[in-house]
Automatic annotation (TrEMBL):
Annotated family: Belongs to the mTERF family.
Organism lineage: Eukaryota, Viridiplantae, Streptophyta, Embryophyta, Tracheophyta
Biased composition (Pro residues): 47-57
Protein's name in the database: Transcription termination factor MTEF1, chloroplastic
GO MF annotation terms: nucleic acid binding
InterPro entries: MTERF, MTERF_sf
GO biological process: DNA-templated transcription termination
Species of the source: Elaeis guineensis var. tenera (Oil palm)
Length: 302
């Protein structure tokens, strides 16, 4: 009789969280033990497959320890410092969040970014009351497919803990009324715009109104250059306006043709090019002054 020792596989798998049961164990350890030994006819072909065993494989399962759960979260880059003294139920709850996000297309490499930029996802978020409504909003209101939804969240993880009724839906409606389109396209600008309170968006329109533009004109400028919504008034928008009027001697009316002026760096682009042209007694439209590459610009006006 020949004795053959089968291989033992240790697999750690994560089980799905059951609805309304956040305490479901997200990890299971499995020991799969096939038949330990079998007899073989010495006259049979040694290369032929052995007969199937009448006994099914033995499957043993056990719960991972608290230390193993913390270690698993650390491998994902999820901060567990606040969970070091947490109960097993709390760790299971965090792991259920991980499992849910993985079901939405997130991979292991995404979790360090989520945890670093928005630790609240793993400290205070709830699947049914927080996460699921956001994914439903992105799919239904924004018409984002699963990949677009995932990429928008990766660009602005705070989306996952934003309130749909009081933040995301009103902001989306406001942006659509301004005429913005393709907001489901996963760009940094779109992701952060969706998570911007309406009050902050309106403050940029009011700033433009203070320059003499009407509400419709101000809203139109922002719609054509949505990046304006992300700039601070005192540290970005106002200094650029003051330089445009006081140093460059231009009128704010020029912004009607080229609101993208606000998107360029004052120190790295606007000032150097203006001074370069001023020294040569040249004045051109803002668009030509700022849109051209350095190579083309400085080659044209040497």
């Amino acid at each position: 009789m020949l004795a053959r020792l089968a291989s033992v596989d240790l697999a750690v798998t994560s089980s799905r969280q059951k609805k309304r049961n956040p305490g479901t164990m997200p990890l299971l350890h499995s020991l799969h033990l096939p038949t330990l030994c079998s007899s073989q006819n010495p006259n049979s072909n040694p290369k032929s497959p052995p007969p199937s065993s009448p006994h099914p494989p033995l499957l043993l399962r056990f719960r991972p320890s608290r230390r193993q759960k913390i270690q698993y979260l650390k491998t994902l880059g999820v901060d567990t410092s606040s969970s070091s003294s947490s109960s097993m139920e709390t760790l299971d709850w965090i792991l259920s969040i991980v499992d849910y996000l993985k079901s939405k297309g997130f991979s292991d490499s995404h979790f360090p970014r989520l945890s670093f930029l928005c630790p609240r996802i793993f400290s205070s978020a709830d699947i049914d009351r927080t996460l699921a409504p956001v994914f439903a909003f992105l799919a239904t209101d924004l018409s984002a497919d699963p990949e677009q939804a995932r990429d928008l969240i990766l660009r602005c993880p705070e989306l996952l803990v934003s309130n749909v009724e009081y933040r995301l839906r009103p902001t989306l409606q406001f942006l659509l009324e301004l005429g913005l389109k393709n907001l489901n396209s996963p760009t940094n600008l779109h992701a952060h715009l969706l998570n911007t309170p309406i009050e902050k968006l309106v403050s940029k329109i009011r700033f433009l109104q203070s320059l003499g533009f009407s509400y419709e004109e101000s809203a139109g400028l922002c719609a054509r250059c949505p990046a304006i919504f992300g700039y601070d008034v005192e540290n970005n928008l106002r200094p650029k306006i003051e330089y445009l009027v006081n140093d460059m001697g231009r009128s704010v009316v020029e912004l009607k043709k080229f609101p993208q002026y606000f998107a360029f760096s004052l120190k790295k682009r606007i000032v150097p090019r203006h001074l370069h042209l001023k020294q040569r007694g040249i004045q051109i439209a803002l668009q030509r002054m700022l849109l051209w590459s350095d190579e083309r610009f400085y080659a044209k006006w040497k």
